[in-house]
Amino acid sequence: MNLSATLLLAFGMSMDAFAASIGKGATLHKPKFSEALRTGLIFGAIETLTPLIGWGLGMLASQFVLEWNHWIAFILLIFLGGRMVLEGFRADADDAGEAPCRHGFWLLVTTAIATSLDAMAVGVGLAFLQVNILSTALAIGCATLVMSTLGMMIGRYIGPLLGKRAEILGGIVLIGIGIEILWSHFSA
Least CB-packed of 39, 84, 110, 116 within 10 Å? Predict the structure, then answer.
């Protein structure tokens, strides 16, 4: 795979994390660049690991991974998105005060895993091609780091415009990503 194909793949794989990061940034109270970078690092690290895991699984049992990865991503994203929507409505009902200043580590990890399962499937496919999986995975992880950090900072400016509806919108985005993953699997 040449450099341009690797870069296109890397930025293509980072789009789900970018969309999720915008939602995450919008739900926080004026997230600082350090929080955006923290989110980018978590998303980027997981997005680096998942194609490597997929590649390894592709060497072992590609059919099983390809049969179930879309369902796993769909269920995780629907769960996380539904939770965010419910919390957004609950915040409206409770008229809660200020938004949090940062997201919990495990919430970010779970979201990152859910949005990177497509990269695992790509890793399975890469197992059958003559590619340098380490450089490809690093390119995907670096692109995700950049795009997730950027997404959080964009979310910082969208959040105050949306107010309490930001969490609801972020949840809807995650649900939409889950539906898109399932749809693209069945429409292929």
Answer: 110
What separation, in Å, do the N-terminal and C-terminal C-alpha atoms of the chain show? 23
Q: For 17-71, what is each residue's pLDDT tens digit?
A: 888 888 888 888 888 999 999 999 999 999 999 999 988 887 776 556 567 767 8
Domain boundaries, the chain: 3-187
Continuous H helices in the chain:
3-13, 15-27, 33-94, 105-126, 133-162, 165-187
CA distance 117 to 108: 14
- Both tokens of 70, joined, read 């879309």
Q: Whose structure tokens read 């497509």? A: 118
Length of the chain: 188
């450099």: which residue's tokens? Answer: 3
Give the global pTM.
0.73
Burial label for 10, CB within 10 Å (0-12, 13-18, 19+), is buried
Average pLDDT over residues 86-90: 77
